[in-house]
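Dock 2-acetamido-2-deoxy-beta-D-glucopyranose; give full complex structure.
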Amino acid sequence: MEGSNHSVVSEFVFLGLTTSWDIQLLVFVFSSMFFMASMMGNSLIIFTVASDPHLHSPMYFLLANLSFIDLGVSCVTSPKMIYDLFRKHKVISFRGCITQIFFIHVIGGVEMVLLIAMAFDRYVAICKPLHYLSIMSQRICLFFVVTAWIVGLIHSLVQLAFVVNLPFCGPNVLDSFYCDLPRFIKLACIDIRKLEFMITANSGFISVGSFFILIISYTVIISTVQKHSSSGSSKALSTLSAHISVVVLFFGPLIFVYTWPSSSINIDKFLAIFDAVITPFLNPVIYTFRNQEMKMAMKRVFKQLLSYRKIS
Ligand SMILES: *[C@@H]1O[C@H](CO)[C@@H](O)[C@H](O)[C@H]1NC(C)=O
C-alpha cells in the first residue's frame, strides 16, 4: 500500500446507483430491511447449529459455515452503500477501497469452495449412503472449511498483488457503489490491458471452475436419484432443489456483472445490489423454511431461551 507514493489519488468517489430520489429511498428501505434480516437469519442458523446436538452433522456444520460467510457478504459492501445513499459526496479512501476488494474476493472464494463441499456432502449422502459416516468425518469437514479459507485468501492476495502498486494520477470517480476490481483498475494511469486479462483470468478460473464442478455434481446426483426412485427420493429432490437454487442465485448475477462489466444500462449495478444484499438473506430462507429438522431445532432454541428468561 506504500507503493502509492507516485500517485496523487488518495481517495475515490462513488457515483452511486442513481440520482433519482424515489429509487434511492426504495433502495434504502429494501437494503436496510434485507441487511438486518440476513444478519439475524444467519446468526440464528449459526447459533442453532452450535447449540442443538441434533444438528451436529457435516451438512449442518457446512451450512453454519456458509451462514458465517454470508454475515461477511452482508457487511462488506452494503453498510457503506446504505450510509452513502443520501450523501452528495460519496468517498472512500485508497486503503478502504483496497480493503473492500480484499474481503470481496476472500469471501467470494470461500463461498464457492463451501458450495462445492456442500454438493460433495449431498453426493456422498445420496450416492454412497452406506459410507456416509466414514467418508464425511469430522476431519474431512474441517479439511473442506480450511481449504475454503486458504483458496479464498490466495485468490484474493493474487488479485491484490496485481493492483496494490498501480499508479493513480487522473480521475478518481467509480461509477459504482463499492470498489469493484474491473472499474477500479480502469482508473490507473498505465496501460492495463495485460493486467485486465490477468485479473479476469483469476476470477474467471475460480468462478467458472466451481460453477462447472457444481453443475456436474448436481447432474450426477439427480441422475442417481432418478435411477433409484423410492420413497426417499422426493425428500432428496427437495433438498437438492434448495442447494441448486442457492447456486443459481449466487452465480447468476455474478456471471452477468462480470461478463458485461461496461454495459451502459444500470442493470449490472442493480444485480450487484442483489448479490450484496439479497443473496445472503436467501440462503437462510431457502435452507431453513424447507427443512423440517432445522425448523424443529429453531423451535427448541426459542423454547430454551424463553425458559431461561422465566428462571432468571
Ligand atoms: C465450520 O465447520 C467446522 C468443521 O465441521 C466446524 O467445526 C465449525 O463449527 C463450523 N463453523 C461454524 C461457524 O459453524
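Observed: Confidence is low (pLDDT under 50) at residues 1-5.
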